[in-house]
UniProtKB/TrEMBL annotation:
Protein name: Phosphoesterase
Residue ranges occupied by any Calcineurin-like phosphoesterase domain in the UniProt entry: 156-323
Molecular-function GO terms, alphabetical: hydrolase activity
SUPFAM superfamilies, A to Z: Metallo-dependent phosphatases
Organism, scientific name: Paenibacillus agaridevorans
InterPro entries recorded: Calcineurin-like_PHP (IPR004843), Metallo-depent_PP-like (IPR029052), Metallophosphoesterase_sf (IPR051158)
Keyword terms: Membrane, Transmembrane, Transmembrane helix
Lineage: Bacteria, Bacillati, Bacillota, Bacilli, Bacillales
One Pfam entry name: Metallophos
Transmembrane segments: 7-25, 37-57, 78-103, 109-130
């Protein structure tokens, strides 16, 4: 390991540990005051285990200790949410407690009173966020593409990005996806990346393919890779598993559907440098196509809307951003991406970015909602075509 990398890891762990100590110290002040518990070393050990539970779970989920690793990963996931909101709320809480103390308030007021309010607020945030994460909604968009699609005048699409199937998200949430998609009754199902949460092993071991294979549509189910498929390092195996259950993973590939429209699927940007096959640009993928047909692009990260517009793409579908997942992270994704969530018209391009069906890390959504997209497309001939 390079010295610079080692130094970075040490600095990160030092900062992370300091934050964990700060949050744990605040918890100890309230708990010890309420319960009279004085065994702080035992409390410190519990906080340390929780703070590093996600890392422990991630390292152990593919080992014989997986029965312990998976609960540890779930606990650690919730810790990340507590970490973020603790950093946002506790400095304000501590400042308020200090002011009350200096003003002569009793310890019951500035420790128990203020601390209890902060604790209840944190619990409320986690409760609402958990509901938003596990209770998906259907979000509908109606668009018109000014091209002929042969005999087809309409197309109903169900879109689900960022499923993050693995040790935390499994069959139960997958069944929610199937139920929502069945409500839409789509002609085609499109999955714009991050079907997996890093590792293929939990997906295979838990037999998720049997449940996932229940996703059916007359025109098929198509997916592209996201960055998390590459993090797991088993993209060929993933593509093969999807093929077994009838999901076509497009790797810089195009397919003409019913001689009506063209579906274009890009490898994720994370593939760059990880594969001997270069990731093709949108322009390269479009160049050999019949551009008189509607062109629908699946590209996991919404990074190149300008190129998509210039290349004649009619509808681009992406995910990746989670819309920040937890408030106020959307302020960051909004600056990172031209479109981090929702719909944008750019020339003739209709761009749609989903906040995703699953989640990464904490099963908590406070800045977005778990969603499945219902997209109704109307195909319209241009004036020249109508007159011919």
């Amino acid at each position: 390991m390079k010295a610079r990398t080692l130094f970075t890891i040490i600095v990160f762990l030092a900062i992370y540990s300091a934050i964990a100590v700060y949050i744990g110290w605040n918890g100890w002040l309230l708990m010890s005051e309420l319960t009279g518990w004085s065994a702080w070393p035992a409390y410190a050990i519990v906080v340390a285990l929780i703070a590093f539970a996600y890392i422990i779970g991630r390292l152990g989920q593919s080992t014989p200790l997986r029965s312990l690793a998976e609960p540890a990963k779930l606990i650690g996931s919730y810790w990340f949410a507590l970490l973020q909101y603790g950093l946002l709320l506790l400095p304000i809480t501590d400042a308020a407690a200090l002011v009350l103390k200096l003003a002569g308030a009793d310890r019951d007021v500035y420790v128990v009173g203020v601390g209890s309010v902060a604790a209840l607020l944190l619990l409320l945030i986690l409760a609402v966020g958990t509901h938003n994460a596990w209770s998906p909604v259907i979000r509908r968009y109606d668009i018109a593409i000014e091209k002929s699609a042969g005999d087809r005048s309409r197309l109903t699409i169900a879109v689900a990005s960022d499923l993050h199937l693995g040790s935390v998200i499994g069959h139960r949430h997958l069944n929610r996806l199937i139920a929502k998609v069945n409500e839409i009754k789509p002609d085609i199902i499109l999955l714009p990346g991050d079907v997996l949460d890093d590792d293929l092993e939990p997906f295979v071991r838990k037999g998720m393919g049997a449940t996932f294979g229940k996703l059916k549509a007359p025109l098929g189910v198509y997916a592209v890779t996201g960055n998390h498929e590459y993090f797991g390092g088993k993209v060929p195996e993933y593509v093969n598993e999807m093929r077994k259950i009838g999901v076509h993973v497009l790797m810089d590939e195009t397919v003409v559907i019913e001689d009506s429209f063209v579906l274009i699927g890009r490898k994720d940007k994370a593939s760059e440098g990880r594969s001997r096959d270069r990731r093709q640009s949108i322009a390269e993928l479009v160049e050999p196509l019949d551009a008189s047909k509607p062109l629908i692009l699946l590209d996991h990260q919404p990074l190149e809307l300008g190129e998509a517009e210039a290349s004649g793409i009619d509808l681009s579908l992406s995910g990746h951003t989670h819309r920040g997942q937890m408030f106020p992270n959307h302020l960051i994704t909004r600056r990172m991406f031209e479109l981090d969530w929702g719909y944008k018209r750019k020339g003739k391009l209709h761009a749609i970015v989903s906040s995703g069906f699953g989640f990464w890390g904490p099963p908590v959504r406070t800045g977005s909602r778990s969603e499945v997209l219902h997209i109704e497309v109307s195909f319209l001939k241009t004036s020249a075509q109508r007159g011919s």
